[in-house]
Design a protein that fits this description.
The chain is 46% helix and 10% strand. By secondary structure, the protein is of the alpha/beta class. Strands 3-10-9-8-7-6-5-4 form an 8-stranded parallel sheet. Strands 1-2 form a two-stranded antiparallel ribbon. α16 crosses α18. The longest helix is centred in the C-terminal third of the chain and has 20 residues. It is globular. The chain starts with a helix and ends in a 14-residue tail after the last helix. The model has no long low-confidence stretch (mean pLDDT 94).
Length: 381
Amino acid sequence: MAKNIMDDLPGIDDLERRAARRIPHFAWEYLASGTGDDRAVQHNIDRLAEVRLLPQLLKGLLEPQIETELFGITYAAPIGIAPVGLTGLIWPGADAALAKTAAAKRIPYTMSTVATERPEVAGANADGMGWFQLYPPRDESLRADLLERVAQSGFTTLVVTADVPAPSRRERQRKARVRVPPVIGPKLIAQSVIRPAWSIGVLRNGLPRFKALEQYIDHATMRATAGFVGANLGGTLSFDYLAAVRRLWEGPLVVKGIMDPGDAERCVETGADAVQVSNHGGRQLDAVPAAIDALPPIVDRIGGSVPVLFDSGVRSGLDVARAIALGADFVFCGRAFMFGLGALGEAGPGHAYEILREGLVNTMAQIGCRRLDELADRLAT
């Protein structure tokens, strides 16, 4: 690793390019692809890039303040790690690295139900910075037990994902033969052998498994667990279900994947403490609007009553500033942190965070903002 890695890899795009050379093709396709023709993925990025900020100058010495309080916890920046499934397939040991980064940097780490570590382990590593994303179990007893385990593991905030009513087709993943469990044949072996850092990591950490769910399954092979996930998670989320989760979970509750102002309003009425505007990173519906375009109408409808969080398409600290200027209280990134892992291993998520943090602080200085709540005044019309 270079002595000054920020000079060699100063942007998230730099991490992406390096990660693509270190992650096997089938795992890369799982991370980088969307669905359909992948237009929604790029549309998220393009629409964020069109948001312009107008500098106000002659402000004297500026030292932007970016600490942000959310749900009674002060975070170092309004930047969090979004949930990603099958983390260990993308990079071995991913969950531990992400949780430890969150603890070190004092930012939220959102663990997915279908990540590849147990919440008991990830929660301890996150040191109070852990959030947990729930794919809704159909069985009430499983749901109750999983939520109890999550709470006991130190996760502070529950994130109920709403935007996966059914599996998406994800054509790129099909062509790459992404399977759970992986079908270990000549093609997969060939793709892995030419990615030695990833392969060594697999030897150390083992093949990825849905460890959070294994205790609910007899003879929990990866194939059995994958079948269990398909048969028992998702497809049932409704406002009645959300109300039931609200009764079970005592901490802050976020509903993620909201794009419609009416849905946002009803989530709040049902007991949500925040909504997260997101189109699942463009992975569910290729015709979906860019998430950044859905943000202002939702802020207009519910902003001020509860926090409005945001993800999808964020690739820089400037993008974080853009989302906050349009009304987001907190911004999450998924792929950016995974690109960091692929590019640099365990040190990568921390470097991705520093790219985003430095970019946000620099953007605020360039446009004359000392505080995050001043960003909205810099929107160029």
